[in-house]
């Protein structure tokens, strides 16, 4: 049996852009992606602390050091510039692996900086 366990978390970043005319996804500053061990194309859950919205999408890398958090496509209609969000990724692992696994959790500062 496999358990779905928190693998990565970017805690409380501010949405800097929303682009409804894009195909989909969330764009995240590559520095934040690396720090949280999130890879391009990975499925993530985005939770909006401002309005309570929750959605799933995939990640595309944004410019390093930019602090970019951009919701693309339909997600831009639900989560808006200035909202505070939490971004989480999960992994499947055995119960034995899950008991000793430590997720990568980051707490960016103002401007979505490490």
Explain the overall architecture.
There is one protein chain. The protein is mostly beta strands. It has a single domain, classed as Barwin-like endoglucanases (Beta Barrel). Helix content is 11%, strand content 47%. It is built from 2 helices and 8 strands, in the order βββαββββαβ. It has an 8-stranded mixed beta sheet with strand order 2-6-3-5-4-7-1-8.
The average pLDDT is 97
The CATH class name reads Mainly Beta
Number of strands: 8
Tally of helical segments:
2
Rg, alpha carbons: 14 Å
Question: How widely separated are the two ends?
Answer: 36 Å
Write out key terms for the chains shown.
114 residues; mainly beta; Barwin-like endoglucanases; eight-stranded mixed β-sheet; 2 helices; 8 strands
List the helices and strands and how they pair.
Layout: E1 2-14, E2 17-19, E3 25-29, H1 30-36, E4 43-48, E5 54-62, E6 69-72, E7 84-94, H2 95-100, E8 104-106
Parallel strand pairs: 1-8, 2-6, 3-5
Antiparallel strand pairs: 1-7, 3-6, 4-5, 4-7
Summarize the structure.
The protein has 114 residues and is mostly beta strands.
């Amino acid at each position: 049996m496999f358990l779905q366990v928190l693998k990565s978390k970017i805690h409380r970043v501010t949405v800097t852009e929303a682009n409804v005319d894009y195909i989909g996804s969330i764009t995240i500053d590559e520095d934040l992606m690396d720090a949280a061990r999130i890879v391009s194309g990975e499925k993530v859950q985005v939770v909006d602390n401002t309005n309570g919205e929750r959605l799933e999408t995939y990640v595309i890398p944004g410019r390093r050091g930019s602090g970019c958090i951009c919701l693309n496509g339909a997600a831009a209609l639900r989560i808006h510039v200035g909202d505070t969000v939490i971004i989480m990724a999960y992994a499947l692992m055995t119960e034995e692996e899950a008991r000793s696994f430590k997720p990568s959790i980051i707490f960016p500062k103002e401007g979505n900086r490490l």
